[in-house]
Fold this protein.
Amino acid sequence: MRAHLARVDAVLVQALIAAALSFAHLHDIALAAGQDGWKAWAYPISVDLLLVAAWRRLRSGDAKAAGWCWFVIALAASLGANVATAGLLDMNEVPAWLRILVAGWPAVAFLGGTLLAHSAPSTAPDNGTEFDVDAVEGQEDAPELAPEPPTQPALEASPERPTVPVPTALVDHARKVAAEHHTRTGKPIDTPTLRARLGVPAPMAEAIAAQL
């Protein structure tokens, strides 16, 4: 446990040092480009926030193309400031193109942050478990073992609603969804809601509901 905490502390200290240095370099570039006062301090915050927002989008798995695009833009701004302050740029005579980039950064950061924050996420089951509906439907054609003859006459299934085999994993997932729905609403889950949550055909949803 202590060894684990020591590794975490070392990583945290390293991250804080790297963030502070990058923050200072971005501030120096903004200051040299004519953004004085509080504006020079706002630039590194804007770059770091866009970098974090893009990284969260990549971790969420939604719209990864947009996440990678803005992650690369924010990383280029941070890395460019770090390299420029390493003596490769005369901080007293900043070129005009750099002044233009620094002045236009707020609009770029606002656009990126807005797109990352308001893009629609993809729908998925609440507990992160995904089922391939096509694969589940394909299991309907699998041969079944002949059931043992019942000791008592059984009710015949309605011809318009044949028995649908349901995988055990899907039934277990449906129980979790039903329990979560009951906890949240105080009412048992109905078949249409269960079908929408699982994304399965209506006959299979009815078969699952019968086993809950």
Notes: The CA atoms of residues 59 and 140 lie 35 Å apart.
